[in-house]
Design goal:
- There is one protein chain.
- By secondary structure, the protein is mainly α.
- Helix content is 60%, strand content 2%.
- It contains 13 helices and two strands; from the N terminus they run H-H-H-H-H-H-H-H-H-H-H-H-E-E-H.
- Strands 1-2 form a two-stranded antiparallel sheet.
- Helix 3 packs across helix 7, helix 4 packs across helix 5 and helix 9 crosses helix 11.
- The protein is elongated.
Length: 261
């Protein structure tokens, strides 16, 4: 009963107050990426470095006024928009360049802009443009809004497994509808410790109907840890409906990767 009330409360918050600023900022960056899409579907990231003054202003706004969405201050100042494009669009493939540019501010004496703000902004950049970008396995996940829960659960349940155990978990996850594919080629980047030979040997054997009993506890564990149930028609219903900031970033990255990679 408490869970149902909490779900209703989350829905009412979203309905009454609208999207969070994190969601709004991701939407805005996605719109800027879309504007730079070329006829061949590539993204023009040839964005010149903005002025240090505009960059300092953006850092100050973002780090001290989190209540102001990116779009609001970018629409008022073209220089601020260029900063956001340079950092969050060009930064996808040129992260080191962006970080080096931002670190120039550490040696500048700008009243109101201390090192903590600059370094904090660089850490924020790590959320949108992480050093270790999500693997291609992200594209295999059927529900990007629950990507973190699904990936964390699969890593937990395959920990230490290199063959049959790993193949069993992935096969059941695929049959449940959590992932599109459980082929080794689709999971190897995210799960490098799994043995290709052992995995590919066991996977077809586990598809046999005589192996159904092995799948029951795996299925139950997936549903419990991720938090979902299945309707009679096969639809998955997640117990928690709100999207975490990390899942929003996973969704954002899956969309960005479709252009850049």
């Amino acid at each position: 009963m408490a869970n149902n009330k909490l779900e209703e409360f989350c829905k009412s918050i979203d309905k009454e107050y609208g999207k969070s600023n994190t969601e709004k900022n991701i939407d805005y960056i996605m719109s800027l990426v879309k504007q730079r899409e070329q006829p061949d579907k590539s993204i023009d990231d040839n964005i010149p470095a903005p002025s240090l003054q505009s960059t300092a202003e953006v850092i100050y706004i973002v780090m001290t006024r989190g209540d102001i969405p990116f779009k609001k201050f970018c629409e008022k100042d073209r220089g601020h928009k260029q900063v956001i494009e340079y950092v969050f669009i060009r930064g996808v493939k040129h992260r080191d360049e962006i970080v080096s540019f931002l670190k120039q501010l550490l040696s500048k004496s700008i009243p109101g802009l201390g090192p903590k703000l600059v370094l904090g902004f660089i850490r924020l950049l790590d959320q949108f443009v992480p050093k270790d970008k999500p693997t291609s396995f992200l594209n295999v996940i059927q529900f990007p809004e629950k990507a973190k829960e699904i990936m964390d659960t699969l890593h937990f349940m395959t920990n230490g497994e290199i063959g049959k155990g790993a193949a069993l978990v992935m096969l059941v996850a695929c049959e449940e509808g959590l992932i599109k594919s459980c082929r080794y080629e689709d999971i190897k980047e995210e799960f490098p410790s799994i043995s290709q030979k052992a995995y590919n040997k066991e996977l077809p054997l586990l598809r046999d109907k005589t192996q159904e009993d092995l799948k029951i506890p795996i299925r139950a564990s997936l549903r419990t840890r991720i938090g979902y149930t299945k309707k009679d028609d096969g639809r998955i219903v997640f117990k928690k409906t709100s999207m975490s900031p990390r899942n929003m970033l996973f969704q954002f990255w899956r969309w960005v990767m479709s252009f850049f990679y």
